[in-house]
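Protocol step 4 of 6: structure prediction from sequence.
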Amino acid sequence: MKDLVYRIIKSGFSFKMVSILLFMPLGVAAQEGFDREVVVVRPFEPSVADASKINLLPSLTDTLSVAPAFTYSILPTPLASDFEVEPVTAARMSAEPVSKLYGSYLSLGFGSYITPYGELSINNLRHNNYSGGLYLKHLSSQGRLSLANDEKAYSQFSDNEMLFYGKRMGRRNSLSGEIGLNTNAFHYYGYDTGVDTLLAQDDIKQQFMMAGGGLRFKSTHLDSNHLNYDVSLFYRYFQDRLDVQEHGISFVSSFDRFIRSQVIGADLGVSYYNNVSLADTSNLVLRFSPWFNKADDEWEVFAGFHTYYDQMGEESKLYFHPRASLQFSIIRNFVIPYVGIDGNLNINHYNRVANDNPFIIPGLNVRNSNLNMDIHAGVKGNFTRDVSFNFRVSYLVKDDMHFFVNDSTSLIGNQFAVVYDDVEVLSYTGEIGADISDRFNLLARINYNSYEMKTQKHPWHVPSLDMKFSAGYNLRDKILLNADVFYIGKRFAKPFGNDSGPLELDGITDFNLRLEYRYSRILSGFIRLNNITNTNYYKWNHYPVQGFSVKAGFTYSM
């Protein structure tokens, strides 16, 4: 057995084969003979074991680098072409077509209550240096109104207006001026119907005439570093049918300049009114108001004060009113809160008071009203790009505020005097405007005032609530429709004659409608409906207004 192993190792068998032989049964060496018979169980199936491949690839590093070198040349050959370039005309900016202007128009109409209407406006066309024109207007009514006792009153009126104006424009300033004449004729038709009386038309007739003119000189600098100025001088002459005359001269000026990111300015004014009547009176008011303004994209601040010197006859007063305001943007252009304080002096000259209430006593002298304090706060902005709003609350203190009351010295009370009181007013104001589209717009405004009187029982003829709703619609620039609804709350009139208590005047609801049809660019027709609800309301005690009325006409542009 040892010899066999030795021969196997010597013959080159592997170690694996040697191991097999070592573990063979030892009994093989003890057998005497070999059984050479071979039994084949199944056919021989040759197989080849998987080879183990070497993945390393041979690589050869060559340290000799040879750069190829060659030369070439191109022989240029011209390309023949039969294409010919055609010259192109240089482009020119064509002038934008100038639309034709219709600087003048004539409007004529007629309505119920025998109401003729005429309006004429003449203006010059385009010019770089000047503009000017003429404006004329007439409106009258010959109808009568029924009073509380069904008596027909002489309520006819006639309003006329004439105005010449012009403007000269320069590179650094402009000069404008105007001269005009207004006449208003009417009757004191409203009286206490409890008195048995008959009014003659000539006895209750009144007529106002106002003539005057003025000049205005204003800077037009494009550079904010220059001194800006706006100076005006006006003269007005006012007269009534009883030869009560008033001469009024006013000088108003404003100066400002941009200095170190802020604007500093001052307003100066002088007003003088002389009332020539049975008792001549004169009133001189001087005003000096310095201020400064500073603004950013997100906020704006304003501060200053008013100083007034008021001399009426031999009595003189000095007033001082602080002015300040602050506004800032929470959401830019959408939510802008603001607060402020202000005050002023209202000059109640005869012309102004007569415009407020034409049925006053001829030659009535009214003291100036002092707005001692106006503290306000609010928020304005836009709900959307098309819907804007402004909500404000104010606390006002007014001294010598006047209220119209029926003249107690007259038996019939068809003229008005005034009473005075120092009042405190808590005011709430809200306004919303919406441009729904280029064709449709809306506006709503509400005012509510709470008065605290000192001596008078009520703010006579002054409402606590007033509202206005307006809507406009434009149908393809052919049909224009506008509607207005006014509401004025109840008011109180001071007792007169045998009246035992305050008279309550009902609230006023007035619905007006205007319709215009544009036949062409130069010709259109219109119809206007006023007081559609035909409400017989009173604006002033004893004075009813016209009920439902209609007016129609045309407008011709020239």
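Step 5 (inspection) to follow. The longest strand covers residues 387-406.
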